[in-house]
Design a protein that fits this description.
Order of helices and strands: EHEEEHHHHEEEHEHEHHEEEHHEHEH
Bound molecules: ligand FO1
Radius of gyration: 19 Å
Number of strands: 14
Shape: globular
CATH topology of the domain at 8-44 and 140-146 and 178-320: Rossmann fold
Largest sheet: 7 strands, parallel
GO molecular function, one term: magnesium ion binding
Number of helices: 13
Strand content: 15-25%
Keywords: Magnesium, Transferase
Organism: Microbacterium testaceum
CATH class of the domain at 8-44 and 140-146 and 178-320: Alpha Beta
Protein name: 2-phospho-L-lactate transferase
Strand order of the largest sheet: 5-2-1-9-10-13-14
């Protein structure tokens, strides 16, 4: 049954998270429901050339503000690279990693506020004042818990180097978030989950986007204990990842790239996991019985996020689940 004005919390990261969040905002506006709270993965974050980058926070912020580069899926639309060229000439930063001029303005502002003693939560709230985002954004934690990739040869890379330099071609053995065991949920995160009517798990990378959020001590328990319905959206369509490297990440943790396997990875809340329902793409309808066999009610729906409208329809299907 569709709740009339649900309080919604979304767990999200990456490009999938930003497209999904646009749809959540549109769907909730139609219902005159309160603004959703989006708990954003900060495991992709890094220090580079003296500034703090928060790729998932920025991708979602830019998308909600309508200033994102929709082609690349990250950075600002129409950005230039003059400062980046100068950084490269100095041999600063990473030669394979582009920092756009407008994007650098964000990183400089953020780093300045962090250096002034503000927490990442406070910095994000300040950044959100610039644009009417229509969404309350919270980082998953105020601690720095970047993601490292452990490799077959014993090496260890920052996730951003593994992804942007090596395009996920170096086989990962595991993903780690050093320091996460000592991290706490950012202020407001567990309260939002506890008082929600619906918690949505975005079709983001289950390993390096949703994984770190649920690994912050206290967040998985909050999701398990909330009276809200917890509905996940499959990031797999037609047995494949839509974009990015989730297939490589899933293989590394021993999970098959299929809608049913990812549902089992999250698990039924009734069996110690986090899901009360799982949205399966029409292309994967045959996987629904397998999902249900794991104790997770499956809802088959169109899951391609072509535009805001198709993305909003996914939220509507999730709210009806
Ligand atoms: N992705 C790339 O593939 N190449 C880049 O040079 C790059 C730069 C970059 C700068 C700022 C930022 O916020 C994101 C950036 N990304 C870049 C995207 C990012 O590496 C990942 O796609 C996300 O972290 C995955 O969610």
């Amino acid at each position: 049954m569709l709740l009339s004005q649900p309080r919604v919390v979304v767990l999200a990261g990456g490009v999938g998270g930003s497209k999904f969040t646009l749809g959540v905002r549109a769907a909730l506006r139609r219902l005159n429901a309160p603004e959703a709270t989006v708990v954003v993965n900060t495991g992709d974050d890094l220090w580079l050339s003296g500034v703090r980058l928060q790729p998932d926070v920025d991708s979602i912020t830019y998308a909600l503000a309508g200033v994102n580069d929709t082609e690349r899926g990250w950075g600002r639309a129409g950005d230039t690279e003059r400062v980046n060229e100068e950084l490269q000439a100095w041999g600063a930063g990473w030669p394979w990693f582009t920092l756009g001029d407008l994007d650098l303005g964000t990183h400089l502002a953020r780093t300045g506020w962090l250096r002034d003693g503000h927490t990442p939560t406070q910095v994000l709230a300040r950044m959100a004042e610039r644009w009417p985002l229509g969404i309350r954004m919270l980082p998953m934690t105020d601690s720095e818990v970047d993601t490292h990739v452990l490799l077959e040869d014993g090496g260890r890379l920052h996730f951003q180097e593994w992804w942007t330099r090596h395009r996920a071609k170096l086989t990962p053995l595991a993903f780690e978030n050093p320091g996460i065991a000592d991290a706490a949920p950012a202020p407001g995160v567990t309260d939002a989950i506890a008082s929600a009517d619906v918690v949505l798990i975005a079709p983001s990378n289950p390993v390096v986007s949703i994984g770190p959020i649920l690994a912050v001590p206290g967040i998985r328990d909050a999701v398990r204990e909330t009276s809200a319905k917890v509905v996940g959206v499959s990031p797999i369509i037609g047995g494949r990842v839509v974009r990015g490297m989730a297939d490589v990440c899933l293989t590394a943790i021993g999970v098959e790239t299929s809608a049913a396997a990812v549902a089992r990875h999250y698990g039924a809340r009734s069996a110690g996991g986090v899901l009360d329902a799982w949205l399966v793409a029409e292309e994967d309808a045959a996987a629904a019985p397998e999902v249900e066999a794991a104790g997770i009610p499956a809802v088959v729906a169109p899951l391609w996020m072509r535009d805001e409208e198709s993305s909003a329809a996914i939220t509507e299907a999730a709210l009806g689940a």
